[in-house]
Amino acid sequence: MSAAYDYHVLILAPGLSAAWFMQAAQEYWMRFQPLVTDDPQFLKYLPAGASVAVTLLAQPEMVERAQREIAACRSDVEMDIVVADDLPTMEATLNARARAGRPFGERRRSHEPT
Amino acid sequence: MNLRDYEWFHNPRGLHNGGPARPFVLERYTRPRMGWAKLVADGDEYVGAAAQLIAQRCMPIVCLHRPDAGATPVPAGWYDLYRTYLEAGCRWFELYNEPNNPARWPQRADGSPLTPVDWKNTAGCIKPLMDNWLDWAERLIDLGGYPAFPALAESDVLPQATVYWLDAMLRYLKETHAERFLSVVGSGLWCATHPYLLNRFYQEPHEGPHHAARPPYQQRGDEAGWHFEYPYDPLIQSHDPGRTVFGATAQAPYGAPNGLVSTGEAFQQLLKHHFDVGPVPVIGTAGGITPIPRTDEAPLQPDALYPPYDHQSHAEATLALMRWIAVSGPPWLFGLTLSDEVEYYEKQGEVLAIRRLVETPPTFKEVPALETGGTERRRPVMERPESVPPALLEEAGEVEEAVPDWLAEIEASTETEEVAALPPSTAPEEAIPDWLTEFALGVEESDLITADEAGAAPEEGVPDWLAELERAPGETLAPSEPAEAEEELPDWLSEALGIEEVPKMAPKAEEVIPPAAEAEEAVTAEEVPDWLAEIDLAAEATPSTAPEAVLEPPPAPMPTLEEEVPTWLAEIVSTEGAEEEGETPEAPELAFTEMPPAPPEEAPVTPAAMPGAAPFPPTAEPDMHWLLMATPGFEPRWFFLAGGRYWETFRPTIVTEWSLVTLIPADKRLAVTILVSADMVGLIEAQVKDAPPNVQVDLIPVVSLDELRAELDWRAITGKRLG
């Protein structure tokens, strides 16, 4: 898990098939081993006061909805949004992060507009 | 029998007639120099036609017609008809037509089948189908004919999924009529398929790369670079790495049968798995590139991953397809009868494809001396009618004879001293084509074993015949690798050609798709070219060691996947994320939707029962489900290799620490599936023995990647997330 945060959670936005994790995020997970879920409700169970980073994988049309869902579950997360139209692009982006050792890109609070 | 024993004219071109009781026009077969003629007949109306065809070196395939036959037994009177056709020189016969298609079964008034047409319906479908087919096959052999294993419709819709049906049929034969079936295998069995290719083919640009496709207006049937080996071609592998005929990817969960060789390959692998025999001949007795576009019609593109085709490129591709079968196709693929006379000659007149075949001599196929295996049922000695000409290969002249690629490579490799002297350790990393390494999901190049090691490893990523496809030098598929200059024959392939015992790729799951086949018996270079190459991408990784991650040929089909229509690409180019690395691909837009899984037939080994079970019954669905795989000794990559279907189905939250269970309130039922190396079970049990009452521990001791996949796939298929 990312050392900068108590919890690093990888969340798949609605509509993404399992391949977006099993294939596109495989190297990323092997490198950083975040918690992985497609249900933002999971965030509710993380301790209050803990620092939580969420890496959101989403296609463009689902970003806003996913952000709302995450914010509804927990408002204090640091958002790291990875947007891609297609799986190969997502995979390339995440693989690059894995190679570079950079788990996060641009981060923002979940309630902030994209 | 040996593949060379089967009587045919070694010309893979073929045409399917327009149906029973139609006027027969011989020239429709002879002008384009067809080598096969599929004759669907009501009775003996085509006996004369069969004799004419044979005299013109076109071998008939006879299928007596019954609408909605389902699995009904053969009428007794048909055997007299078979004798009549046999006496005319026919040898190849089919029974049943696409029994996995509900429309082929007796119907109710409302158009629905009387029997649920589903591979799971053993009593209603599989049993009567195979019982009656086997009776017919034995009697046909006794008469002197070659019986076809029934052609199935190409389907990836679960109840009709082709690979599921093949497995169910062969499994039933193994369990019920093994000895009888083996005698059929050894006495003339062949497999009929219906390869409707859609647009799943392409031709590379002149300089490559292999995964790129020429636009239709640049395709040339008499030029090289064609790919008909779906789903193993570089193009689809670049989009969906690891896809096999059995599917095994999220995009093709129930198999990938829509290709020229797909169903045949699945049959051969299942035959090998269930009976350790094969190969047997495969003939496409319906199909081709369909529909045929009109001359004024816009190009058709059923699969947006592949280029479209128009009337002109359809002709070029059809010509190329027939040559590809002869030169580059698997040795057991004997041809294809294009569907059908009406489409090629009547609907829009004679189509361009026929004209291209007329003006281009056929390419004849040389068949290696491969034994089919099985036992031999005594066959009658069939006298060849006087009108039947001698084997076509004995005659030279206008016909084009091509040395098969696999044979050319053998000949080339035996002339190269450097190949023989090449140290094995230098082979894989620089020599294995990049498109092939793409099969290895997440496998590092350093994980790839050498050709020498491959001799001991049972796993392969691609069918053996595919390894022999002559590969043009040029750019590779790997996104991060720039185009390469021309290379000689890959060292690993050259070396592998001299290895006698070669493993054969096969899927792994026991239940629906069989485990890896045993190595084929050696064939010597003197008798037959060793076209079987070793493509062992990895040995099975051990949990406690670092990467010798394994590419496992995906086993069980996955849930049906409907693909939206993406755009096809000529080439994959860079993306922003990979720019630092140099060249990277720009991937096409792809979208995938998910479909539910399907049940299998047998249960794999269930994992050990775990202490600390929750107070709610194991069968109750938990409120939350986690999967813990960061356990000592367990290689997490195995989950990525084996757990796709499981995760697709259940979507457990992936956690990395057991201690997180304490975060869950006591009123929430939490199930935790724990993947643990079998030798670490005791350690994990000690850690979880004091699990809270609301936590159910579901421990999966992992011995091998195969077993892990089998267990997880079984759970996905049966809908039971917990053991």
Verbal overview:
The complex is a heterodimer of chains A (114) and B (723). By secondary structure, chain A is α/β, with parallel strands linked by helices. Chain A has four helices and five strands. Chain A has a five-stranded mixed β-sheet, with helices on both faces. The two termini of chain A are 25 Å apart. Residues 110-114 of chain A have low confidence and may be disordered. With 723 residues, chain B is of the alpha/beta class. Residues 391-401, 414-461 and 470-616 of chain B have low confidence and may be disordered. Chain B has 21 helices and 16 strands. The chains are: A alpha/beta (114), B alpha/beta (723). The interface between A and B is large, with 34 and 46 residues.
Largest sheet of chain B: 8 strands, parallel, barrel
DSSP E strands of chain A, number: 5
Largest interface: A-B, 34 and 46 residues
Shape of chain B: globular
Shape of chain A: globular
Helix content of chain B: 25-40%
- Mean pLDDT over the full residue set of chain A: 88
Distance between the termini of chain A: 25 Å
Radius of gyration of chain B: 26 Å
H and E string of chain A: EHHEEHEHE
Span between termini of chain B: 46 Å
| Uncertain stretches of 5 or more adjacent residues of chain A | 110-114
Q: Cα-atom Rg of chain A, whole angstroms?
A: 13 Å
Features:
heterodimer; A: 114 residues; alpha/beta; five-stranded mixed beta sheet; 4 helices; globular; disordered C terminus; B: 723 residues; eight-stranded parallel barrel; four-stranded parallel beta sheet
